[in-house]
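#struct-pred

JT: dropping the chains for the assembly here, can someone run the whole complex?
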Amino acid sequence: MSEISDDPKLPKRGQVLFAALFLICATLLLAAIGDQTKWLKGKDFFAQPRFWPGIGVGGMVLFTALHYWNLPRRERRLPRWMREADWLQWAESLAWAVIAGGLALWLGPVLAAPFVFLLATLRISYLYLHKMDWKEAKAWLSVLEWAGWFLAYVFLVPLIGYLPVTLVFAPLLTWRIGYRSRLLLWSSVVFGFVVVVVFKSFLQVKIPGAALYEYLPGALRNFFILNF
Amino acid sequence: MDLILDFFAQMHSSAGILMRWDVVLALLVGSVGGVLIGAIPGVGPAVAIAILLPATFSMDPIVGLTVLLGIYGSSMYGGSIPAILINTPGTAVNALTTYDGYPMTTRGEARRALSLAYSASFFGGIFSVICLIFFAPVLAKVAPMFGSREIFLAALLGIILVVTAHRKHTLIAAAMACFGIWLNTIGLHPASYSKRYTFDQSWLSGGVNLIVVVLGLFALSQAFILLHGDDEKIRLTKMKGSFFQGFRELARHPRIAGASASFGVIMGMIPGVGEFTAQFMSYTYAAKTSKRPEDFGHGSSEGLIAAETANNAVPAAAMVPLLALGIPGEALTAMMLSVFYVHNVIPGPQLFQNDMDFVVALYIALLVLNVLVVIFLLIATNHLIKVVKIPNKFLGVCILTLSFVGVYSLRNSVTDCVLAAGFGVLGFVLKRLNLPIVPIILGMVLGGIMEVKLRSAMARVKTPYDFIDRPIAMILFLMILFVLALHLRRVMLDRKERKANEWSTSHASISFETNLSRRKDFLLTERGKKVRERRSTFSRRSTDKR
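RK: done, full complex below.
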């Protein structure tokens, strides 16, 4: 674990990928600042609507770039011919000059700067990203499943009702994560019921009655909409 | 003296507020709930407070805040139980308790350790509340001296302290704080009615709600972490002995308990510093002044006292910048700030002048809370320790179910839930990478405060020096410079140490290729120098002019 990282508490896998992604997003946001915020004439510098977003996004780019620079990295091992081919390095330098110059001529130097920085970040990230980073990215993506469960729960509650969805959701998710014991499955049902009763019936938090409750007979309909 | 007498009169009137049945119930729920939440590793007060926040909005401010304060103040008591019994801190701030608590358990002194932790926590909690009760009249005098520029500088100091407190992650912590500042600016700019970073999306024009971010980053991400991980096998030891022995033992170490509680109070009051620094300082102090420093980390009662006293002295003290200036020092008080805003109670100098009853009632609530928690723990510890056995993944299901109430009940908005899920994934990634989350929340809260205060302060400032020409502004400015200088010095020292380590060690993980390359460098430079030197000794270069 500590092969690259000099801080034993800092896991190395995924650090470069995260820094690169965060830096890319921050740079894109910085590039959009002219379009997304306004600079009002005659207004005080510190009261400008662009001032604080500028501090925020500028700080994000600056500090993430420095963090990226400071990260313990391991360079990708390029094939031998690439390492030894001088012409490739010359060609790359030339390509950079053409891209930077072309963008500056096309967009103007101020607008072009974030894009050149973005391209440079991508190029550098290619050099320092490692197989381990992609493995870590898989773990990040795998969590989308749980986010999906949560969102499904969110979408179903206004349709079917808070109580019924919770009573199904809790044991179903408990089943999904691998528990088969009756104790835990029933505990999850009881837990779901208690949550609904405490928050909706007792504390009266704002969760609207479901579309399905409309089909219940008169008094039961009101009772369900109010309490469950 | 008059100040103190006034204050006691105030206490009398505030006690009336606390006699209401709903406040008493809130105190009970907060204290018992807090202990339970603290005792379950993997939940923690931040998750609980984030989930409960929207539910407290419909309550009276004092009731809602009492519940949240109860959870905040009592979770550390509960957190010491798994720290001592199974070597897993229940809340993050109990990490230092494991150093001395767990070795005591392995020696068969679990009950002694627990009782010592309870009594030390109780002392820390009561000490800080008493300090603050006597300090409140002074605060009421000082707080009105804080104008816009002082509050701006205090918020700036807070953000700098939060960032620099993340040692070795300072840069990314700063980036996260800036991310928070940026998040807070999304939406309509209130002073000019112009849109900022809304990308022409209607759902962004209202801005990003702090509670949605908090729930995503703290609650949902924790649920994802628990669902993603594995369950741990836990063995509990049987306990023998009396729980009251801790108080007797604590009485034998008044110096350490007093010093640790003082560190807790002082560090708690400075925004952005908090429990960890207080614990670190008091633990170091206790180890340095102890007669048996070699016992620290191996089950020293003094170490346990230092750690537990310091962390429990912080919550009450952390309310000082929040109530007096409206500046939260860490994530939990930042969350509580939103409760104030929802009820249109604006914390700050005016609160101390106009609503002193409310402030004193909060302090008395904290005092009563500590007594309630200790009584509850002395009676119920044997039953309470069973909550440690709840499997982690199952806890994940529970938190996910509860998070829904938190996010959805806020505005019944599906968009909020999607955003919260997004922040949950971000929080999951940050937690996995061991990167800081708290600066995002503080960036959002303090960024908002700084924006408003800087705008109003600059209206009356002609030259840059005008900004710091008042005494408190000057002190704050000097403090900012001092903190930055201190941080710079530490960075330089760290760098030096890292360089020294790089050159001194040759560990097995260095690849064969690197070894060869180092060898080559050595031959070319170091050995080359020696060879040249040797040759030059035998055949000196002629200095004669030709």
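JT: nice. Chain B touches chain A through 74 residues (CB under 8 Å). The two ends of chain B are 93 Å apart (CA to CA).
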